[in-house]
Amino acid sequence: MRRILIIGAGRSASSLIRYLLSKSEKENLHLIVADLSLALAQKKTQHHPNATPIALDIFDVEERKAAIEKATIVISMLPAHLHIEIAKDCLEFKKHLVTASYISDAMQALDEEAKKNNLIFMNEIGLDPGIDHMSAMKVIDEIRAKGGKMLLFESFCGGLVAPESDNNLWNYKFTWAPRNVVLAGQGGAAKFIQEGTYKYIPYGALFRRTEFLEVEGYGKFEAYSNRDSLKYRSIYGLDNILTLYRGTIRRVGFSKAWNMFVQLGMTDDSYIMEGSENMSYRQFINSFLPYHPTDSAEIKTRLLLKIDQDDIMWDKLLELDLFNADKKVNLPNATPAQILEKILSDSWTLEPEDKDMIVMYHKFGYELNGVKSQIDSKMVCIGDDQTYTAMAKTVGLPVAIATLLILNEKITTPGVQLPINREVYLPILEELEEYGVVFNEQTMPYFGYNPDLF
């Protein structure tokens, strides 16, 4: 049997494992599901006869190499920084590798050797990065095939809570990596191109510069800019495009409310707060407020943020129980960002019956035969439950489908790569539609950002 080694059985692996097990009889597959927690690996394989759960410590070099040597192909669902040693072992034992993570410099450095050994190291084949690449390149390639010239490309994606589970004032719950949410936008100004001009948004202004999006059946959303929208400009072949912008989707009002945390300094991850372990939630927020002999923390917060007590922004803060003097942080040597994550997790953790939602929205502006047009492409995916979430589905299924395509020699181009070639994105997007990951495209006149000119 063909042995697929899956390293990492976390939340994103559930749909991946289920898909491959469903194909295991027909495709002659045996899954080795490896995780530091044997119990977790056992839970994900559910006693399937074509799966073997194993405990694997990837820092045990002999154990790791032995597992990889026995595999036909390797899938790494570990955090991105842990892929590289697995990739080096795959080179040593001549195994293909699939990951959902961004291509790091260390991974890219293996490209030449992977090509020499005719190995496919497929990366960025999850949701974002992944489905965003594939769905974008499909439309861009179709426009180019007709002789069209790209004028604008905007791409937005967000992990949200499904409408039926949306029951807080923030219209948001953590569906993936809370720490990434808290630190979003940090590390430099957001950079993009609009009408041929480079634009920059410093972190302090990021959440007040949003764009609105409408998705039929789901209402209005907003998006704030990703830190570097230009990362894929050359990869997508869009070096001469007038507008290139990538952003993160939230419900309208989220960004304005989140900006309160930014202005207070609660998202800072650069220093440790003394006494954090015994600090109350009230002491935490009061740490960022000026001293006043008589004003309460509530009054000082409203004055500093310039919000009235009947403002919905105030209600959003109260909903988080930020001013509770009895709740303790219980985190030693914690940064403000770590404490904020802890507080938000109290209110924003998905309940067992909750469902998540993925929204992706692309805009393509182009000129063809002297006529300027725009295609809007939208995708909404709702999770089944807390095991087979929308996030697990949209991350895991592309990984699984790509793995099978590589095994069956439908994807043959070697090297370190992302899924921007037709041999990769066409069959994967087609099969994803069977699982409810469907893009609806609508053509309309193109106005760009200068509507008065038309």
Structure explained in plain terms:
The structure is a single chain. The protein is built from 15 helices and 16 strands. The chain is of the alpha/beta class and 454 residues long. The strands form 3 sheets. It has a 7-stranded parallel sheet with strand order 3-2-1-4-5-6-15, with helices on both faces. A 7-stranded mixed sheet has the order 10-11-12-7-13-14-16, covered by helices on one side. The longest helix is centred in the C-terminal third of the chain and has 18 residues, at 390-407. The protein is globular. The termini are far apart. The relative contact order is 0.16. The model has no long low-confidence stretch (mean pLDDT 95).
Question: How do the strands and helices of this protein lay out in sequence?
Answer:
Blueprint: E1 2-7, H1 14-27, E2 29-35, H2 38-45, E3 51-55, H3 61-70, E4 73-76, H4 83-93, E5 96-99, H5 105-108, H6 111-116, E6 120-122, H7 131-145, E7 149-161, H8 178-182, E8 190-194, E9 197-201, E10 210-215, E11 219-225, E12 243-251, H9 254-264, H10 281-286, H11 297-305, H12 312-319, H13 336-348, E13 356-368, E14 371-382, H14 390-407, E15 415-417, H15 422-432, E16 440-445
Parallel strand pairs: 1-2, 1-4, 2-3, 4-5, 5-6, 6-15, 7-12
Antiparallel strand pairs: 7-13, 8-9, 10-11, 11-12, 13-14, 14-16
Protein name: Saccharopine dehydrogenase NADP-binding domain-containing protein
Domain Saccharopine dehydrogenase-like C-terminal: 126-437
Organism: Flavobacterium geliluteum
